[in-house]
Specification:
This protein is an alpha/beta fold. About 40% of the residues are buried.
Length: about 350
């Protein structure tokens, strides 16, 4: 019996050793295939005509291993628009196969909504061999934001042109051109772009002391999406979302944030506790977002900018609270990589996960 056991152990070691030795070549084969797939991936070009929303950052300013900082891609036909560029936005867009020419729209200038902007502009420029800078829409002040990123990246862009050559990295394509959005006096909204069948409306939201803060509505071939941006519960959002196909609304759970506040106090961190006490008043609870979706007649609701982080799925129930009782349409908590498709000429909304 001992000899049989010894023989089995030796055989296992030989087989295991063979597999171990083969791991490297196998991994290289897999990598070779994946590299080609990744470099030729074109989500924008592969989607049917319609309006599509891709979540490329569903978290907030808190450290979150599952969710990047705020970023939502909207694909209208073959046009790509990116709303907010939080940290890791460029890498997430690349991982999801979202490339091509793009336009960025900022809801406001909180750091977690803009700190990935430099990389998004860089990837569009060098990755796409663009010879014109990135267009950046935002509230007045967007000029200073663009100028700051342009200055911060001035050396980097010079290095890349010098290294790769102007044919690959054309100097004219580096940087960002700002397009300030001016709301008319006394008005809550303004159309900022209308071309190729795409209409984008910017509207004022309540995120004081941030002023102005904006949300956006996209209309394309009978389909529509509203992105709230950061805001307390706002009647302007409800008005803009009237009859919309999909409302993408930020959400903060006051109950869960209160746990963080209490924990900060117990840990002897009174200033951090003060921050936790402050933040609920300029955000919207899941319940209030659900009420806005119901009152506006939105066909579906996607909650994003999830605060606080939800490290385990079991916290999604406490996060939502009574939101599902207030709104009986499809309601989802966003995760990075979610794709929601609204084909032109239809009424359905198809949701699936990208890689």
């Amino acid at each position: 019996m001992k000899r049989i056991l010894a023989g089995l152990i030796v055989l296992a070691l030989l087989v295991g050793g063979g597999l171990y030795a083969a791991r490297g070549p196998l991994a290289l084969k897999v990598m070779e295939r994946r590299v080609v797939e990744g470099m030729t991936a074109d989500l924008v070009g592969s989607l049917p005509d319609g309006l599509h929303v891709v979540v490329c950052g569903s978290g907030g300013p808190f450290p979150d291993g599952d969710r990047g900082a705020p970023c939502t891609a909207v694909i209208a036909g073959k046009r790509l628009f990116i709303v907010d560029t939080g940290e890791a936005a460029g890498r997430t867009l690349g991982r999801l196969g979202i490339g091509g020419d793009s336009v960025v729209l900022l809801t406001h200038f909180h750091s977690d909504h803009i700190d990935g902007l430099g990389n998004v502009a860089l990837m569009r420029w060098v990755g796409g061999n663009r010879d014109t800078p990135l267009l950046l829409y935002g509230a007045p002040g967007v000029e200073r934001v663009a100028a700051g990123f342009n200055e911060a990246y001035i050396f980097d862009s010079g290095y890349r042109t010098a290294h790769h050559g102007p044919e690959v990295a054309p100097p004219s394509g580096a940087g960002i051109i700002p397009r300030p959005i001016m709301l008319p006096t006394g008005a809550d909204s303004v159309v900022v772009l209308e071309e190729d069948g795409v209409k984008i409306t910017a509207f004022r939201v309540d995120h004081g002391p941030v002023e102005p803060a904006l949300g956006y509505r996209f209309d394309y071939k009978g389909r529509s999406v509203v992105i709230s941006g950061d805001t307390s519960a706002s009647p302007v959002v409800a008005a803009q979302a009237k009859g919309v196909d999909l409302l993408v609304h930020e959400a903060l759970s006051p109950e869960l944030v209160k746990l963080l506040q209490d924990g900060s106090s117990r840990a002897g961190l009174p200033k951090r506790a003060k921050i936790m006490a402050d933040i609920p008043n300029y955000h919207t609870s899941p319940l209030d977002a659900a009420k806005i979706a119901r009152s506006s007649g939105a066909r579906a609701l996607l909650l994003t900018h999830i605060v606080p982080p939800l490290p385990v799925r079991a916290l999604e129930g406490p996060f939502l609270g009574k939101a599902r009782e207030a709104y009986d349409g499809p309601l989802w908590i966003a995760r990075d990589g979610d794709l929601l498709s609204m084909p032109a000429g239809g009424t359905d909304i198809k949701r699936r996960r990208l890689r």
